[in-house]
Design a protein that fits this description.
The protein contains 3 helices and 9 strands. It is of the alpha+beta class. The radius of gyration is 15 Å and the shape is globular.
């Protein structure tokens, strides 16, 4: 069983972006959230991709919101909201790189980023690391939807609101 907290990651004029942070035993929080880990891991190994991803996020939070054109659909029967961030600032120009940053994109103003990595296999399911990241987000998505149905959490003006802490237990 893993525990995660949803927390604010970036805020701009058009969008507040959330990420997740793992909580270890004794309520010790990981020093970095999952998205910070992703960016730390790619900054030196893939500097061009690092800059592309940062530029896309800056565009989303300040200008456009989380429009579907910025994402590759990774949805499946377990989760209708799983996507991977891509570069598509220009119409018809898509990111062709090997990196994937997985996220839950509920709407143009509802985005939760996870972690990612280098995609070396045909599908993320074939890569143990990427599959684990995707499964965490899929399970988190299910928990969010359940808590929305009960009114424990809700979105208001693009902000995630909760009657309790945004902490979730995820069983993989």
């Amino acid at each position: 069983m893993k525990r995660y907290k949803i927390e604010e990651f970036l805020q701009g004029k058009k969008l507040t972006v959330y990420s997740i942070r793992e909580i270890f035993d004794n309520n010790v929080f990981d020093s970095n959230n999952e998205t910070e880990k992703f960016f730390f891991n790619i900054k030196s190994s893939h500097p061009d991709d690092y800059n592309i991803f940062k530029a896309v996020l800056k565009n989303m939070i300040n200008k456009s919101g989380a429009k579907r054109k910025f994402f590759r659909d990774e949805t499946n029967p377990d989760c209708d909201y799983l996507y991977a961030l891509i570069n598509n600032y220009d119409e018809n120009r898509h990111y062709k790189g090997e990196l994937r940053l997985f996220c839950l994109n509920f709407d143009v103003d509802k985005l939760i980023l996870g972690n990612g990595g280098i995609k070396k296999t045909k599908t993320f399911n074939e890569d143990p690391k990427l599959n684990t990241i995707a499964r965490i987000l899929q399970k988190l998505c299910s928990e969010i939807i359940d808590k929305e149905k009960t009114g424990d959490i809700y979105w208001k003006n693009g902000k995630l609101k909760s009657l309790t802490d945004l902490i979730f237990e995820i069983e993989l």
